[in-house]
Amino acid sequence: MCDLCAKICPVNCITIESVKATEEIGMTSDGTKKRLYAPIFDIDMAKCCFCGLCTTVCPTDCLTMTPVYDFAEVDIKNMIYHFTDLTPEQAEEKKQLLAKQQEEMAAAKAAALAARKQQ
Asked: N or C, which end of the chain is more exposed by having fewer CB within 10 Å?
């Protein structure tokens, strides 16, 4: 979820959306803690020019090039590959949990600030 692949893609075929996790969700391949969910991680293979830049900048080898290059489809809409494991409902739930956590943190910060002002 570092977004480097989407930023370097010359044809903008990678779409990534992330949501900060409110709980422990696991470890990455390099041993760091996962901190983000991916409600959207799509690659539009109809746009992809197979340059490999996305794989070059990927620090965790999430994206790799393979010998497979033929993605023939009758409908071009089927060329968008979805690499997320969250359903839209789960993604919305994660967004709501994050918003609730941020509200609670803001309220706690405001309460601490008010307590300091009273002292």
From this structure: C
First-to-last alpha carbon distance for the chain, in angstroms, is: 43
Residue-wise pLDDT tens digits, 8-46? 999 999 999 888 888 888 877 777 788 888 889 999 999
> Model pTM greater than 0.85?
no
Distance of CA 18 to the CA centre of its chain: 4
The Cα 39–Cα 21 span in angstroms is 11
Max Cα–Cα distance, the chain, nearest Å: 71
Neighbours of 110 (CB within 10 A): 10
How many angstroms separate the CA atoms of 63 and 56, rounded? 9
Looking up tokens 């969250």, which residue turns up? Answer: 86
Taking a C-beta distance cutoff of 8 angstroms, is the pair 13, 4 a contact?
A: no
d(C-alpha 4, C-alpha 59), whole Å:
9
